[in-house]
Amino acid sequence: MTRPIFAPSKKNHPPLRRLANFVLLSLALAFSTGEVRAQSRTIVVDAGHGGHDRGGVPRQRVGEKGLTLDVSQRLRRVLEAGGYRVIMTRNSDVFVSLGQRVAIANSHPGATFVSVHFNSAPRVGANGIETYYYRRDSASLAANIHRNVVAGAPSENRGIRRRGYYVLRRTRIPGVLVECGFLTNPMEARYALNPSYRQKLAEEIARGIRGVRAPMGRPLARGSASSSEVLPQPFSGPDFVRATPRSRRSARSSKSKKKKKSSSSKRKRSSSGKKKKSSSVQRVQILGA
Ligand SMILES: [Zn+2]
Asked: What's the CA-to-centroid distance between 39 and ligand 1, angstroms?
């Protein structure tokens, strides 16, 4: 009769056992308390846009500013129920400048900043969740929020992107900006208009803030594998969008050169859909990238 492999045996070496226990305990700790959790108990929740700044693209049927406020207020309630202190950059339909948002965030030095947005694009087919961060200490939080939201959404995974949006670049606390789907996409707009879906979004974002790990689900959407719009990322992972390598970028620009280097930093407003998936995404909201 064979003995089960894991049956306790007097012959087991105690030091080895202790080592195994230590490893298991360390792993358990890493997974339960993980460094991905927002380190503070104060969260600055930033509802995108407001007042005369409606967000989205001109003539967009489903407006952005009301939905970002609604999700943010739901997020506030979920977080407060979990014992967090929540500061809102706006709590009604008012205009708050980017500078004011940053000032509010920076007046809470121990806090974490979470900005809530919805996306828009001229191409109605564009859909999916994307999450941005800028500071290195925010990458794991971005990943955690992103994976939870993607796990709970029927949308494509457009990846985690490092980008210097004003509110992420100028805040002196860890910060993440999550784009909860495209309001210009009929299916995602329909979801976003559903209060119970917005509640789900809020709960998934809160789960990410609390440090709950989501399974790595959907792979990156096609066309998101690398992008000239993102900055080089200090981290890698299957859902971190890679920056287009410099060599490819410069090769591309030298092909289409002789135009001197005038316009490369400004995003063109003309790309009439089709061409490149991710670069056709335009935001009218002035995020100050
Ligand atoms: Zn927005």
From this structure: 26
